[in-house]
Specification:
It is built from ten helices and four strands. With 300 residues, it is α+β, with helices and mostly antiparallel strands. The longest helix is centred in the middle third of the chain and has 43 residues.
């Protein structure tokens, strides 16, 4: 809170103190450019993290309460096996609904792999039964035992082996996005620190004169901190705006495109990039403050 309180005073400032730091020059351009570049990249890191989070939640929710029963049997027995399997499922606690997929639905599932002209009726494709669970869920071990006794050709797939790796991959991708976000902040802090040290070194004589006339180190450091914080905030804001525009131009989420078309922000997530300029300003404030204190201690 103390850091935020000091940071808020940056926007009020001291006009006389601002004259200590040159308003233009190499360090000014470097600070604004690096902050803008990092702000732009931070938007994409944030978009990646949020999209990966949505993906993990979607995969977890969609697969957690659904299962598939696969029945393989000769053509003259398949109807009997389906009817027996449905009777078992209807009397199983935790099963909300169960229905056999139609030929058109099964053809739609196989179309991405075999094309639209799949001769379903001539291939030994097992019959699929879609199972939707209640909130409590069912006992998969007990259901498998019942199916083995009453429907020998049935195989239960509760999607566990598919769900866990997918959710784990999406969660790691989200972690990677947040890690990239933190690395971007660290790179920005390093660039601003170098720029601040360069500006302090270039103004050594000015600092010496200010000390001779009675200026305190805190006053001199405050001038540099204010100037570089505003530059960091401005650059990050420019990069954030450019990044948001670029993200808004990405394709909208589509089932055909999968994850690659869902990298934008959704709903209230569009407000998250507004934090980037503030974070950029705080990073610039902390980096410049540390650099100024260290440099002023080194000067005679």
């Amino acid at each position: 809170m103390k850091l935020l309180s000091r940071f808020s005073t940056i926007f009020v400032g001291d006009v006389q103190a601002d004259r200590v730091v040159p308003p233009t020059g190499f360090t000014a351009n470097l600070t604004i450019f690096s902050a803008a570049a990092m702000g732009f990249l931070a938007v994409f890191a944030l978009a990646l993290s949020l999209a990966a989070g949505r993906l993990a939640d979607r995969w977890s929710n969609e697969l957690a309460r659904s299962s598939t029963l696969r029945i393989s049997a000769p053509a003259d027995q398949i109807d009997t096996q389906i009817a027996a399997a449905l009777r078992v499922l209807e009397t199983t606690p935790g099963v909300a609904t169960a229905r056999a997929l139609s030929d058109d639905e099964q053809r739609a599932l196989l179309e991405p792999f075999f094309g639209p002209d799949l001769p379903l009726e001539t291939l030994p494709i097992p019959q699929l039964i879609e199972i939707n669970e209640t909130a409590q869920g069912y006992d998969p071990t007990g259901l498998r035992l019942r199916l083995a006794a009453e429907v020998p050709g049935a195989v239960l797939d509760d999607h566990t082996r598919w769900r866990k790796p997918l959710v784990r991959a999406a969660s790691r991708l989200r972690l990677l996005g947040w890690t990239a976000f933190l690395l971007i902040g660290g790179a920005m802090a390093a660039m601003i620190t170098l720029a601040a040290q360069s500006a302090l070194a270039a103004n050594t004589q000015v600092i010496s004169v200010l000390r001779l006339v009675g200026a305190q180190d805190s006053y001199i450091a405050g001038a540099f901190v204010r100037r570089f914080t505003l530059r960091g905030f401005t650059g990050a804001a420019i990069g954030m705006v450019a990044g948001v525009i670029a993200v808004s131009l990405l394709p909208a989420a589509q089932d055909e495109g999968g994850f690659l078309t869902g990298l934008g922000f959704h709903g209230a997530h569009w407000l998250w990039p507004l934090l980037i300029p503030m974070i950029g300003g705080i990073v610039a404030f902390a980096a410049t403050r540390a650099a100024a204190r260290r440099k002023l201690k080194e000067l005679p």
